[in-house]
Design goal:
mainly alpha
Length: 142
C-alpha cells in the first residue's frame, strides 16, 4: 500500500495540471491506496472459499459413504449372512464418516483462523491508509 501511495504522490508532484488541486491530489492518492488494499485483500481471500467448501461438504461426503456401506450391509444381511461377514463392511462405512470429519474439522478451524486474520489485516490496512493520508496532508499538500 505504501508503494502505491508513494507512486501516486510522485506522479502528482510532477503533474503541473494538478498544481493547485489539493483535494484532487488527495482523492487520487486515496484511490490508489484503496485499490492496493482491495488487491491485497483479494489475494488473501483467494483460497478461503476452498476451506469453507471442504468444511461444509466433507462431513456429508463421509455420511454418504456411511449410508452406502450400511445399505450394502443390510443387503448382505437379507441373504442370511453372519455378523463376521458384515462387521468389516460396517467398519468401512464408519471409517468413511471418520475420514469426512478428519477433513472437515481442520478445514473449519483453518477457515475461522484465516477469516479472522484477514479481518485484522484489513483493519490494519485501513488504519495505515488513514495515517498515510494524514502524513500526506500535513507534509506535502499544504
Amino acid at each position: 500500500m505504501f508503494l502505491a501511495g508513494y507512486t501516486e504522490l510522485a506522479k502528482l508532484a510532477s503533474d503541473e495540471r494538478l498544481r493547485d488541486d489539493r483535494e484532487g491530489k488527495l482523492a487520487n492518492i486515496e484511490r490508489a491506496l484503496r485499490k492496493a488494499q482491495t488487491t491485497e485483500t483479494t489475494k488473501l481471500e483467494s483460497m478461503v472459499p476452498f476451506l469453507a467448501t471442504t468444511g461444509a461438504s466433507a462431513p456429508f461426503i463421509g455420511l454418504f459413504g456411511t449410508v452406502m456401506g450400511i445399505l450394502f450391509t443390510f443387503q448382505v444381511f437379507s441373504k442370511g449372512t453372519t455378523l463376521d461377514v458384515v462387521a468389516p463392511k460396517i467398519s468401512e462405512a464408519l471409517f468413511a464418516t471418520a475420514v469426512g470429519l478428519v477433513a472437515a474439522i481442520p478445514a473449519v478451524i483453518a477457515y475461522n483462523f484465516f477469516v479472522r486474520r484477514i479481518k485484522v489485516l484489513r483493519s490494519e490496512m485501513e488504519s495505515f491508509e488513514h495515517d498515510y493520508l494524514n502524513i500526506i496532508k500535513r507534509h506535502f499538500l499544504q
